[in-house]
Amino acid sequence: MAFEALTGVNGDLVTISWMASKGANQTEHYLKEEVGGTVFFAFRASFSSEDLFATENTSPFGEIKMKRNQFPCMRSIGNDVDTTVNEAFLKSLEVLIGPRTSFHASVQSAVDRKQQVVFTGHSFGGATAILATVWYLETYFIRDAYAAPEPRCVTFGAPLVGDYIFKHALGRENWSRFFVNFVTRFDIVPRIMLARKTTIEQTLSYVLGKLDSTRAPIHESDQVITEFYTRVMRDTYTVASKAVCQLIGNGEAFLETLSSFYELSPYRPVGTFVFSTQKRLVVVNNSDAILQMLFYTCQSNDEQELSVIPFLSIRDHHGYEELVQSIGIKLLNHLDLHNPLLDGENSIGSALDDLGMSTRARQCIHAALEAEKQRCQAHKNGYYDSFKDSNEENDFKANVKRVELAGIFDEVLGLVKKGQLPDGFEGSRGWINLATQYRRLIEPLDISNYHGQLKNEDTGPYMLHGRPSRYKYAQRGYEHDILKPTGMIAKDVFWSKVNGLNLGLQQDIQEILKNSGSECGSCFWAEVEELKGKPYEEVQVRFKTLEGLLEGWIKDGEVDEKEIFLEGSTFRKWWNTLPDSHKIHAPLYPRERMMDETRAT
Amino acid sequence: MESSSSSLKCSALGKLVLSSGLLHSSWSKISEIHKSPYSNQDSGLGIKIYREEKFTLVVFVAPPIFTSSSDSTLLPGKENENPFPFLCSENNPSFSLHTPAFKLFTSAYKSLTYLKSELLQTLESEKPVIITGASLGGSVASLYTLWLLDTIDPKLKRPLCITFGSPLIGDVSLQQILENSVRNSCFLHVVAAQTRIRMDFFKPFGTFLICFDSRCVCIEDPVAVTELLNGVHDSEQVDYGQVLRRLDQSMLSMADSRLIPEAVIKGMEERAEMKTLRFDMFKKLNDMKISMAYIEWYKKKCRDVKIGYYDRFKTQLAFPSKEFDIKIKNHKIELNRYWKSVVEEVEKKPQSDISILKRRFLFSGNNYRRMIEPLDIAEYYLEGRKEYRTSGRSRQYVMLEKWFGMEPIEKERRKNRDLSDLLTFDSCFWAEVEESLIVINQLNTTVGVRDDAREVLLTRKLVEFEEYVWEMIRKREVSPEIFLEKSSFMKWWKEYKKIKGFNSPPSYFTEFMNTGKYKSYGQSQ
């Protein structure tokens, strides 16, 4: 019971997953198993080095960016960066969902029948399971059209797959809860991706051969394995130490200088981890804490232990059958914010004893949990509410309020960019709506202030230098939220709208619309300010674009139609100066209020 | 269990540095040179460059240090006597260096100059550079790195200087200069614990990696470094190859022991606390924008009653009537206090760091200067003082104007723009008006014998002012507020018109005023 509450999966589901994972190794790609209405997809583990590091890939960790149009949710909204994942793992996913296997069709049919799906795999098959789950979430779960049920992903000794943004994006969408990863204490595979490709390249094939259980047995004194283990753990140590420095905000300038001299693995743990020891299972959800545990659970007490750990690191990769059977028998501990007691007296303490965690190790875990606590506190401090409360005033103090609000928003944005708010914060509908409301209400004031004080003459056009990043950020969040169920990305949607206006060749138009306020409805006024006073012929395309998009903005609530058509509005005044030949063909012309105005003049 | 996060910080950073492998790469090259038969033969400076796959290593080798090596050389701020003039700040105009290191540095100046251009190329090609050396070689490496840092574009990767058991190179002034600079992050000094480094005159800067038996810690706090490095052994006698090997062996085992005495940690924490309490200009910037918004509003309200905010402020200062006017005065005081501190902070930084100041600071500062300085001028002349521009200006205005002028900005000034919210470009404009009014006063109060020469001189001053104003009107750089009915400028114009009379030939300016064209100045057309 407790196990299910902590991990989101029950013992039976784990057992079936494990059986399927074992079975998958006899197949070419994957194994499908249906038990009691749930469909299990288990993936084959490959032990060849090309399946760990893609051959053509020259990055130090075999990494590559995920494509935004295929995985629109897998990015950071705050920093506008796409997710990085291991290219070889991504390639196995591509083969899997491609036409050469029946996988896509099988998932589709499960979705059609509204069946729950579980993706699972042992070892490198686990990496495929993780990416297949992400693919399922993006392709089916998020789309309104399918109303697909929640998936589960269960891995056994899987390597790390994606970077910090991968972890952050899954957290933001509240999808981390679907992932459960089992790790035996010394298993080397979950640590391999923390090492640089160049340091382990030479011994990799040999060790992978040893990890493949169908091959020859291993010896305790195998020097190649010891060498491999030491190299992986050394790099893991660097990653873990750097993470602690960042968690406690230490010597930032020095860290920055130092960072150009070494390469650190970008990969980070995702979802729930279940570590096992002889007597216990320890459940951890905090990615930073898991990272520390990946290093510190392998530290040794003495020389003698140190010499056998490399051997154990291979042997433990095959300890999952025993682990699965022990669920419900072994003691269960949960390492989280509410149980942060790291001393040896209570059960968490003994759990950490079992995992061989030294005092220093506990401090590192503590720092990780503490950082999460601070993130939650920052959230609770009510940035949201202080923002909301003051969003509604509009008297003389509007200007003062505007600056105050900007201050609060910038503070939130700073926290978001540095990852100091919980991952889920950015994805919450309440925050997105509030930020959108703020953007629509206040950005026009900022624009008017910018032009009123003639800052465009000192600093250049608003869209080029003046637009505060808080609005760009709010715009990204809004677009992400509305486009999510369609699977489209904002840039493509914008250009398809513009192309629909038939103003010329796309590449010419792209050049003309560089830094144009038409990119976003709340920048409507910036575009008007830029265009007005310039000869009609010169700005024809830009104006027609603005006009063409206006209807949509009014409909979406981006632009307040009452305001722009007011008698004395800048827009209306400018409209009156336009040549009649334009007005007659303009989409705005049929509008009643415009008709009146043009007749009168 | 040690609960302090400071000790965790020191140890985590130490682990990171150790496991990064940088120390091993550097030391292996240093020992390679020291073992070679050619080393130690001449008394000059040896430099060797190694181009590795990931970075370029530059090793400095120097002869052993003589015992009387604690001499120091004072470097004045003047360019020709100091190879490091860019390090001098407004607050620390000079500093002293370790003489043996400085002598070696200057002796090889020519080859070092050549090396500099070579390394700059390397850095520009995105390849990072490590500059290293043991003992005196490390001290020269530090000096060289300081010198190199000045020419490096802040966008490029910073080089890292790693020294092993090297004497300190600078005095307390240099320490203070670097404390406020990002350059401080480019120095990593490896020193074995229980050794002693002379700190009577020379002071540490940069980050120290202090090596205990099987563990090491990284510390930036110079006081803690001083406290920890007061052992008995001579740091130059240590075999750092052995020190690194020992550290390396115990990397994967658990032996965690308390390395830093509790008292030292406590001191570090207290100092860290003080630092965060120090003036945070970024955090307060937004509060200041709020104060500016109040003053903007004040300016608008004044315009509604046909008086510029300059003149309104001046009369209200003399006869405060409304609470609001007093509030404005308080906002002004706040803003002045803030920008004064910002400018002071910036002036502590080495000259070449100033360009890194964020753009928005520069623009906010400029806005502040144009908006608030007129109010300071009002106060100044109300107190009956004179010659504001030369003797009354607060330092923050002078500096902000200077820095803003240094920023390359392409201006696109458009005709036909409504200028009603424009802030006059020259923030000392009103001082000029006041000076000119004083001149008029002097002309009008001439008593007794007419002094022609004096009159000619004063009139010439008035004409100069006219030309100055016309230039600004022509360039549309002055706020239309100056033409409001009750403004001091209009008062000046009425007097000036009388003095000039109808005989003098008309100028562009007088025509502009006489024909009433000024009334439509700055309106959008």
Automatic annotation (TrEMBL), chain A:
Q: GO annotations under biological process?
A: defense response; lipid metabolic process
Q: Where is the EDS1 EP domain?
A: 368-578
Name of this protein: Alpha/Beta hydrolase fold
Q: Where are the transmembrane segments?
A: none
- Return the InterPro entries for the record: EDS1-like, EDS1_EP, Fungal_lipase-type
**Per the record's keyword annotation, is Aminoacyl-tRNA synthetase included, yes or no?**
no
Query: Cellular component terms, GO, for this chain's entry?
Result: cytoplasm; nucleus
Q: Which Pfam families does this entry report, sorted A to Z?
A: EDS1_EP, Lipase_3
Q: Which PANTHER family match?
A: PROTEIN EDS1-RELATED (PTHR47090:SF2)
Top-rank taxon: Eukaryota
GO MF: hydrolase activity
- List, for all copies, the residue spans of the domain called Fungal lipase-type: 41-195
Q: Where in the cell is it found?
A: Cytoplasm; Nucleus
Q: Which UniProt keywords apply?
A: Cytoplasm, Hydrolase, Nucleus, Plant defense
UniProtKB/TrEMBL annotation, chain B:
Instruction: Respond yes or no to whether keyword Hydrolase is given for this record.
Output: yes
Domain (Fungal lipase-type) spans 98-191
Residue span of the signal peptide, if any? Answer: none
Q: Where in the cell is it found?
A: Cytoplasm; Nucleus
InterPro entries named in the record: EDS1_EP (IPR041266), Fungal_lipase-type (IPR002921), SAG101-like (IPR044603)
Q: Which residues form the EDS1 EP domain?
A: 294-501
- Taxonomic superkingdom: Eukaryota
Output the Gene Ontology cellular-component terms: cytoplasm; nucleus
Q: What is this protein called?
A: Alpha/Beta hydrolase fold
Organism phylogeny: Eukaryota, Viridiplantae, Streptophyta, Embryophyta, Tracheophyta
